[in-house]
Amino acid sequence: MAKPYVLVYTTATVDGKIASVTGFSQLSCPHDLRRLHEARAWSDAVVVGANTVIVDDPLLTVRYVEGENPARVVVDGRLRIPEDSRILRDRSAETIIITSEAAPRSKAERIAGKGASVIVLPGGPRLAMAEVMGTLWELGYRKVLAEGGGDLLWGLFHSRLVDEVRVTWAPLVLGGRDAVTMVEGEGFKGRGDAVKLRLVEVRRCECGQEVHARYVVEK
């Protein structure tokens, strides 16, 4: 099945956390925020999981640089996102909710009534990320930015759908067994089945403290 080019962009502490045990996740400096928004402007669609919407309530629009807003895609097999989420109230960009047959039909109808496109894939509630990416390809999206969270990224990496990874390493150590890591899920067993990355660029951030690294996935 054809799929879009998938770029993962995340900001993490040096111990790999994207949020603390209390949910603190403001890790980006202003320069990193601009890089993220440049990636949004580059993409045709920005994809997040349901937890990202539930916890962070993001807009997922381009604000720190010039550029067009990408389509906003939420992968939510159980349709758990709040009906008052900002992406459902804001009309400055297209919003697509990809869910499953396990989702409440009445809630899907209400969300569609708010102007979002609701796509119901067979089965569920867990969605196959290859099918999700294939659906986005069929809709005409060729460049996809995946911002998280950890379960969504695990699904993309596990299904070998990621093409590029950009990580800004913030000079912090948060620790915490229950803190959120960059990639969650069941995890790979070892080097043999892990996704292999090749470093193609690394540079010190303009703030002088963060480090931005770009990797491509070895196929």
Structure notes:
With 219 residues, this protein is α/β, with parallel strands linked by helices. The protein has one domain (5-217): Dihydrofolate Reductase, subunit A (3-Layer(aba) Sandwich). The protein is 24% helix and 29% strand. It has helices at residues 30-42, 50-56, 86-89, 105-113, 129-138, 150-158, and strands at 5-13, 17-19, 45-49, 71-75, 95-100, 117-121, 143-148, 164-170, 180-181, 197-204, 211-217. The strands form 2 sheets. Strands 6-5-4-3-7-1-8-11-10 form a 9-stranded mixed beta sheet, with helices on both faces. β10 (197-204) and β11 form a beta hairpin. The longest helix is centred in the first third of the chain and has 13 residues, at 30-42. The protein is globular and about 50 Å long. The two termini are 16 Å apart.
Low-confidence stretches: none
Number of strands: 11
Q: How many angstroms separate the termini?
A: 16 Å
CATH superfamily: Dihydrofolate Reductase, subunit A
Strand percentage lies at 25-35%
Secondary-structure element string: EEHEHEHEHEHEHEEEE
The top level CATH class name: Alpha Beta
Largest sheet: 9 strands, mixed
Rg value: 17 Å
Oligomer: single chain
Strand order of the largest sheet: 6-5-4-3-7-1-8-11-10
Question: Please, how many domains?
Answer: 1
